[in-house]
Amino acid sequence: MQALILPELNNQAALLPLTAEDEVALDWINGRRTPDADLNLKGVIGGITLGTTAPRIFKALVEATAFGAKAIIMRFKEEGVLVNKVIVLGGISKKSTFVLQTLANVLELPIEVVKSDQACALGAAMFSATISKVYPDIQSAQKSMSSGFDAVFNPEPEKASIYKILYAKYIELGNSK
Predict the structure, then answer these.
(1) Domain enclosing residue 6, as ranges
(2) Is the residue at 130 inside a domain?
(3) 65 to each of 21, 46, 69, 96, 161, how far by Cα in Å?
(4) How far is the first Cα of the chain from the last one, in angstroms, to the nearest whole number?
(5) Could you tell me the CATH number of the domain that includes residue 49?
(6) What DSSP string describes 5-58?
(7) Backbone torsions φ then ψ of 69, nearest 5 degrees
């Protein structure tokens, strides 16, 4: 029975409308991660009422995780690191289109899901093949050995614009710690 909870929350959260008045959470359950890590900070869910349902809380927590990733990418950009897509593998990337589409919408970047269930081992094999001179360089090994992608999630502009508002609320909530 418990194994059905996550898929059901994903399904129900995906059906919820997205508005600028939605609940906003901080993903600091175990402290804030990069940027500006602070392990003493705690999570918060703002905007809940007696009518807030489990799927709405789940949605806010998924969005908070995406907002945390956006904060990291924003720091990369401030430091001059170009990020033009995100590649994901394993775990949730194989189980929740809702999470990945939310991430694409929040980040305003395409999210590519690696096809291989053993992407890390495949990467190690690519480097081994390059070191062993089977391929002249890592790019050649990647071209020949890559498993490709199962799916690509592109940002939905109408949702991305609402997520900009919710992200600002996330930042404001975090600054009020």
Answers:
(1) 2-80+161-175
(2) no
(3) 18, 15, 6, 14, 18
(4) 37
(5) 3.30.420.40
(6) HHHHHHHHHHHS---TTS-EEE--BTBB-SSS-BTT---EEES--TT--HHHHH
(7) -65, -40
Q: What crossing angle do the helices spanning 54-78 and 5-15 adopt, rounded to 10°?
A: 80
- 102-139 pLDDT per residue, tens: 999 999 999 999 999 899 999 999 999 999 999 999 99
- Cα–Cα separations (whole angstroms), residue 156 to 75, 79, 105, 110, 162: 23, 27, 6, 10, 10
Summarised one tens digit per residue, pLDDT across range 52-67 is 999 999 999 999 999 9
In a domain, 11, yes or no: yes
Place of tokens 């970047």: 109
What is the rounded distance in angstroms from the CA atom of residue 85 to the CA atom of residue 1? Answer: 36
How many domains does the chain fold into?
A: 1
Local structure of residue 84 (DSSP, 8 states): -
Domain membership flag for residue 111 = no
2 pLDDT exceeds 90? no
Is residue 115 within 8 A of residue 150, CB to CB? The reply is: yes
- The answer as to whether 95 is a domain residue is no
What token pair was written down for 115? Answer: 């096809």
